[in-house]
Amino acid sequence: MNSRFELFSTEILYEIFDYLSTYDIFHAFINLNYRLNYIINIYPLKIDLRNISRLKFDYICYYLRPEQVISLIFSDDNMGDQVIVFQRYFPNFKYQFINLRSIKFIRTDDILLDLPYSVSALTFQGCTYVSQLFVETIVKQAKSLTYLKIDCFHVLQSIDITFPSLTYLNIGHVGMKIFCCFLKNKGSSSNDYHLLIKNLRSPINHLKLSIENENLIDSNSIPNFDYLSHCLTNLTMTCLINKTFSFEYIQNYLMKLLNLKSLTIVIKLDLIDGKQWEEFIRKTKIIKFNF
């Protein structure tokens, strides 16, 4: 005899699954009956392995079907060596997870080196050193990446390849601080971070970065993103260096971003005048503004 729950449509079951973790889905519904097993096995899984015990980790790996996974998040915060253990379960990762779109490495000691071609979103968070492994992984995905988030900006210093599909670039404040120190040691100017972004030759429409180093040599170039004027629609910039900018100076550069629709800017201005900003916004395509 079927329960009322078992009579729910696949669509309703999917909506329920959307509110549950992968472990909860497997633990509550797997092996109850053939229909539920079938529905679970074709449900697109977003697996988040943060704050998970080894017992739950093993349980998930035992039941999941690689082809149903569309996103993966690894973290060593609660369970060490997650990536290594995961590879033991799935030694042919690249050819098993054929529908994987997004993968995040959050404070992990290891990463997966050979990713499926389907991966278009990469995140390296909590990275405090540069490894050639990071560079090789990013380079291998260059043609398919549309989203890249890194804390180690100077990883790009080691990359000599274009990213034709990259539309979202997020560079964390830790990365910019390390990167600026790196430039200082190399005798390079702050213009280099613009040069590295430019050399990606990417149609970036979402750019998010933070600059918090007072030793930048040429701070006057900081808000100059005119090389992205044809494509940039969303800009989030936090500039915490000890320099005050005039409103006219910032306005001059922002006016060059012809397609900008969303702007979040944290920067030291000599005068914060709401009316000035209001008049400026009216002259642009910006519809969302935070400062």
Output the number of helix runs. Answer: 11
Distance between the termini: 60 Å
Counting copies of identical and different chains, the oligomeric state is single chain
The chain-level mean pLDDT equals 85
Order of strands, widest sheet: 1-2-3-4-5-6-7-8-9-10
- Helical residues, percent: 25-40%
Following the backbone from N to C, one meets helices and strands in this order, namely: HHHEHEHHEEHEEHHEEHEHE
User: What proportion of the residues form beta strands (DSSP E)?
Assistant: 15-25%
Protein name: F-box domain-containing protein
Summarize the structure.
The protein is α/β, with parallel strands linked by helices and 291 residues long. It contains 11 helices and 10 strands.
Reconstruct the topology from this structure:
Layout lengths: L9 H8 L4 H8 L4 H9 L2 E4 L5 H10 L5 E7 L6 H8 L3 H4 L5 E5 L14 E5 L6 H9 L6 E4 L17 E4 L1 H14 L4 H9 L6 E6 L22 E6 L7 H8 L7 E5 L7 H9 L5 E3 L1
Parallel strand pairs: 1-2, 2-3, 3-4, 4-5, 5-6, 6-7, 7-8, 8-9, 9-10
Protein name: F-box domain-containing protein
